[in-house]
Amino acid sequence: MEFYLFGIIILFFGGYLIIQYFKGIIIKKEIITEPSLQIERLKICDECIHVRLKETLYKRCTECGCFLRPKTKLFHQKCPIGKWDNLEKP
Ligand code: SF4
After folding, report:
1. Measured in angstroms, how far is the CA atom of residue 27 from the centroid of ligand 1?
2. Burial of residue 18 (number of CB atoms within 10 Å: 0-12, 13-18, 19+)
3. Which residue's CA lies nearest to atom 2 of ligand 1?
4. Which residues form the domain of 87?
5. Mind giving me the DSSP string for 44-84?
6. 3 in a structural domain
7. Model-level pTM?
8. Is the shortest distance between the CB of 51 and ligand 1 below 6 Å?
9. Measured in angstroms, how far is the CA atom of residue 2 from the centroid of ligand 1?
10. Which residue minimizes the CA distance to atom 1 of ligand 1?
11. Residue 87, in any domain of the structure
């Protein structure tokens, strides 16, 4: 009986930690950018000489090798040559 009680306590504690983790991501936006910032980053990339496959969904940076749609969506990503540095972060 004590074994089950211990398991339930661990389950609730783990669930609490998981909820707090996702709350941090969603509320503080520590991982995903605001859509407006992503659009600004993509506009800069569209003008850049290092972008490949510009007209497709799979546009890619030749400097870092990243696919630009997911890269621009991630808050802590940076342009390898600093072209995003002047953008205001929300
Ligand atoms: S991430 Fe930087 S270097 Fe790469 S395409 Fe965009 S602006 Fe150009």
Report:
1. 28
2. exposed
3. 79
4. 30-90
5. HHHH-TTEESTTSTT-EETTT--BHHHHHHBTT---TTSTT
6. no
7. 0.69
8. yes
9. 57
10. 79
11. yes
- Residue whose structure tokens are 């990243």: 66
Convert the pLDDT of each residue in 13-69 to its tens digit.
999 999 988 877 766 666 788 889 999 999 999 999 999 998 888 999 999 999 999
Number of domains observed in the structure of the chain: 1
Looking at the predicted structure, is the pLDDT value of residue 90 above 60? no
Does the residue 10 lie in any domain?
Answer: no
CA of 39: how far to CAs of 1, 33, 35, 57, in Å? 56, 10, 6, 14
Residue 72 within any structural domain of the chain: yes
Q: CA–CA separation, 39 vs 65, rounded Å?
A: 19
